[in-house]
Amino acid sequence: MSFVKTKGFKYFKNLMIGVGAAFVLAGALFKLESWEGASEMLILGMGIEIFIFLMLGVLGPDPDYYWDKLYPGLADYGSRIQPLTAGPTNQPDVAPLHGDVIERQLGGMLTELQSVSKSMGALKALQEVDFSGTQDQIKSMSNFYTKMNEAMADMAKSAEDVKAYKDQMGALNKNLGSLNTVYGNMLAAMSNIGRQ
Questions:
Q1: Would 159 be classed as within a structural domain?
Q2: What is the 3-state secondary structure of the chain?
Q3: Does residue 125 fall inside a structural domain?
Q4: What does the pLDDT profile of the chain (196 residues) look like in tens digits?
Q5: Which residue, of 57, 77, 97, is where some domain finishes?
């Protein structure tokens, strides 16, 4: 196990960074205020910072992973953690991950991502729809329905007029029938007068 990966070294590194920065700031404050010991504090603080920057340059950064949220204890360098597929066991050895399990899990994730992609495409298509002429179309439809209602009212009035005309024609036919009967009777009576 490497010394630089231990919790103690990480704590020491952070402590040195904090102390060095504090000495540099204190030295700058002493220098601005012209207090005694300003030069010594600045030299000490800058020396610590030089050492820290050299150490950080040589060691390189540690990767920042947040795996311990899924695997509690993963931040401990020497811990033995069971993989997802191993299940609850008391064995100290770590079982290897099976490829078919990983493939199945990744396939499920891929399906979900494709579904999300389709949904996003549908939302984008809805966003690109032009609704600018919708209000004018609604006004046009409203005018059309108003005119259609007026035409239907006029047709209802026309139907009433047609019925009244039909009733008048029926009465006229009756009157003509009666008149024809009277005329026929008159003709018959005149022909009887002519024979006598």
A1: yes
A2: CCHHHCHHHHHHHHHHHHHHHHHHHHHHHHHHHCCCCHHHHHHHHHHHHHHHHHHHHHHCCCCCCCHHHCCCCCCCCCCCCCCHHHCCCCCCCCCCCCHHHHHHHHHHHHHHHHHHHHHHHHHHHHHCCCCCCHHHHHHHHHHHHHHHHHHHHHHHHHHHHHHHHHHHHHHHHHHHHHHHHHHHHHHHHHHHHHHC
A3: no
A4: 477 778 888 888 888 888 888 888 888 888 898 999 888 888 888 888 888 888 888 887 766 666 666 666 666 666 666 655 555 555 455 555 566 767 777 777 888 888 888 888 877 777 777 667 777 888 888 888 888 888 888 888 888 888 888 888 888 888 888 888 888 888 888 887 867 6
A5: 77
